[in-house]
Task: structure prediction
Amino acid sequence: MATNASSNTGAATPATPTTPIAPFNAYQQTSSGTTQPIFSPKTTTITDTAQASQPDIVASLNSVMQSLFGRLATSEEIAKYGAELLAAQKANPTRGSQNLVYDPKTGKPLSGSNESTSSGVDPTSFFASILQGTGEASQYRILGTYMDALKNMADSSKGSYNG
Result:
């Protein structure tokens, strides 16, 4: 039976580095012999498809219907117009771009700017644009106009009989 001649005392010997660590160089040598920064300005395009939540759909639709029709939306209307809103939001995402400028010494971003190129679909504006041209909205406006006229006539004739 062979025995191991080396003894293991349990102490670890530190590893010695074979090559020294080079200092950070933020420039790279090009094929023509010139140097250029490694961290050049970078522009990133961002696309975000924002989808309204069910409570947001209900609140926005009820707000618009209350102002245009004088009533709240039914569950069928919420389902119908909510699906139309989600489809419009999916087809028209928010788009923008971000431009970062890096510090050539550290490689960290020095400055950045964001630019929005399209803003997606706003639920309240979307519902208002769909519902404003409906017959029910027209009837509610006309009824409101006549009711205001009747109220004004009633208010103006109050003083004449109090004589």
Remarks:
- Helices lie at 54-69, 75-91, 123-131, 135-158.
- The first helix runs from residue 54 to 69.
- The longest strand covers residues 109-119.
- The chain has a mean pLDDT of 73.
